[in-house]
Amino acid sequence: QVQLVESGGGLVQPEGSLRLTCAASGSIFGRKVMGWYRQAPGKQRELVATISSGGTTNYADSVKGRFTISRDNAKNVVYLQMNSLNSEDTAVYYCNLDLYIGGVTYHYWGQGTQVTVSS
After folding, report:
1. Which residue from 29, 56, 81, 110 has the highest number of Cβ atoms inside 10 Å of its Cβ?
2. pLDDT for residue 27
């Protein structure tokens, strides 16, 4: 079993910053990609950023230049540093882990952490 635990969400003022942390535990092996997705009220879940084991990153256009994803491979922890936050960043943020083992992809999700940007 794999578990993902997120932390770091909360209420922040516009132009403020937050750092989200996701710690993965359990049977984690093989090639993996970790990332963050978000879902705002009334909208579909969308990709925010991902990072591979090798450090390759991918960002949604809406967060490029403001958000930075990083990871500690030894600890299976992924971080999302969010700067210059605005109201459109308000959402529940979900940590994601994709494991690629023997041609099969396994998807895992955290429980989500609320990020609210408001004055």
Report:
1. 110
2. 85
112 CB-near residues (< 8 Å, 6+ apart): 6, 39, 92, 93, 94
Quote the CA–CA distance of 114 and 56 in Å, as a whole number: 26
Q: Are 18 and 10 a contacting pair, CB within 8 Å? A: yes
84: DSSP letter: S
For the chain, the maximum distance between any two Cα atoms, rounded to a whole number of angstroms, is 49
* pLDDT at position 15: 98
* Integer Cα distance of 71 and 79 in angstroms: 6
Write out residues in the chain with pLDDT < 50, as ranges. none
26 CB neighbour count, 10 Å cutoff: 11
* pLDDT computed for residue 3 by the predictor: 96
Question: Which backbone phi and psi does 88 adopt, to 5 degrees?
Answer: -70, -10
Q: Residue 72 is encoded by which pair of tokens?
A: 């500690």
Beta bridge partners of 96: 35, 109
* Residue 118 backbone phi and psi in degrees, to 5: -160, 150
